[in-house]
Amino acid sequence: MLKLTYTERSFYLECLAQSLEEWVAQRVILAIRVGQPLCFEPSTASFLLPVDLPGVEVLKAEIKRHDSEMTICSCDAEYVEVTLQGSWLSSGSEEAVGVFVTTMSERTEFFLHKLWQDAQICAVNSAEC
Fold it and tell me: Could you report the per-residue pLDDT of 14-42, keeping only the tens digit for each?
């Protein structure tokens, strides 16, 4: 399962071994116990990757081959946008802060997570990428 946590300033992508159903059940139980509202709805989430990041072309080929719940398209000369299908969890339906979760093949999840990590490293060390 991939989990994208969106905050006011950024987002963080994690690859979790836990099933989507188990994770959602735990979130619902937590929300009930602490009395927090919880909105859960089908949605999409997008993030950018550098177009010249090693592995982006492999990701494009993987999407074409497996008709994934993911799309990738060019934004501009520097970035591609990765869009995922999944579910949005937040404290209200209009919230921009929350958690997006999705599942796909483990191989694709791990590969996408690695690309995102590599993009973060490149952002910090832009001369090395």
Answer: 999 999 999 999 999 999 999 999 999 99
Scan for tokens 């080929």, then name that residue.
61
Confidence of residue 63 (pLDDT cuts 50, 70, 90): confident
Q: How far apart are CA 125 and CA 120, in angstroms?
A: 9
Split into its structural domains, the chain has a count of: 1
Q: 88 has which bridge partners?
A: 41, 100
CA nearest to 74, candidates 49, 108, 53:
49
Would you say residue 129 lies in a domain?
no
- The model's pTM is 0.87
Which pair of tokens denotes residue 96? 């921009």
